[in-house]
Amino acid sequence: MRGKLGLIVGLGIGYVLGTRAGRARYEQLKAQAEKVWELDAVQKQVGKAKDFAQQSAMTIPRVAWDGLTKVAKAAAETSGSAEDKAEAAAGEAKTAARKTKTAVSEAKKAAD
Q1: Would the pTM of this model clear 0.90, i.e. be above it?
Q2: How confident is the model at residue 51 (pLDDT cuts 50, 70, 90)?
Q3: What is the C-alpha to C-alpha distance for residues 5 and 16, in angstroms, rounded to an integer?
Q4: Which among 4, 21, 46, 92 could disulfide-bond with 74, CB atoms 3.0 to 4.6 Å apart, if both were Cys?
Q5: How many CB atoms within 10 Å of residue 100?
Q6: CA 80, 81, 84, 90 torsion-angle sign
Q7: What is the pLDDT at residue 111?
Q8: Region Disordered: which residues (predicted)?
Q9: pLDDT at residue 40 in the model
Q10: Residue ranges per domain, the chain?
Q11: How far apart are CA 63 and CA 23, in angstroms?
């Protein structure tokens, strides 16, 4: 919630300042932003972010899907009461959450 409020306030301030500054100032700020974007250090970080996104796009959904299927299988295959089934599914869900967290951490390390 705090981040959303900050975003809204920032957008509001940007809008007010932008409307007062006019088109010429906008073009000047745009040119400066483009210069910063083209810096080697910025492009290096962009490359890291792209690599991370590609690795995460392949790894994390697969791990999450495997966990989800194990949770469903545990609930379906466990005999006994509904509580027993829920407990088995909860155990698998915890394991799946740990594996997903590990996959995210590994993807972050690989991106660095």
Answers
A1: no
A2: confident
A3: 17
A4: 92
A5: 20
A6: positive
A7: 61
A8: 77-112
A9: 92
A10: 1-38, 41-112
A11: 49
